[in-house]
Amino acid sequence: NIDAFFDDYINSKPPIRGAIKLTQEQCIDCINNTGKWLIVNGALELAPPIPDSVLLEQAKSAQMVMLTSAYNASIQQPVSYMSTTFQADSDSQTKVIQVLAAMTPSGATPAGFYWVDAENNHVVMTLAQVQGLSQAMMAQGWAEFQRLQTRKSAVNAAVSIPDVEAVVW
């Protein structure tokens, strides 16, 4: 890889070890086409072009990362339930599952049990309502999972980079 360019007219010190001399045209082309040149056995060579199939796979991988990131954000969006909005981030999802695991055997929530909504209001809930909140969170997650799968299939089926890039969240 080319690490730097220098000019012996400007640089008074001798070049660094491993430096090679370039013509003015080579230097200008290297600067304008960074990454397309290699030094092989002490000589400047044009890097071989990356095959279209490799570029397509790189684009697909990058798009999958973007889609997965968008999915992870979307499954943690607040949910509407009981005429209010509740947080549905990972921590909230874990807590509702823990509450259900602890309270389902008794068949009820304790007197005065409440869940905090997205505005930090206490919303009194029965066990059935906590189950409903859990179902609302899971329904949102399931819908977003289906959305992710549809988009991943579209990326996998894409035959060109523009087709890949057209698959957005």
Report a brief summary of the structure.
49% of the residues lie in helices and 12% in strands.
Notes on the structure:
By secondary structure, the chain is mainly alpha-helical. The protein has 5 helices and 6 strands. The chain has a two-stranded antiparallel sheet. A two-stranded antiparallel ribbon has the order 3-4. Strands 5-6 form a two-stranded antiparallel ribbon. Helix 2 packs antiparallel against helix 4 (127-157) and helix 3 (90-103) crosses helix 4.
> Span between N and C termini?
36 Å
Name the poorly predicted regions: none
Biggest pleated-sheet summary: 2 strands, antiparallel
Order of helices and strands: HEEHEEHEEHH
- Percent range for β-strand residues: 5-15%
The helix content is: 40-55%
Number of beta-strand segments? 6
Q: What's the average pLDDT?
A: 90
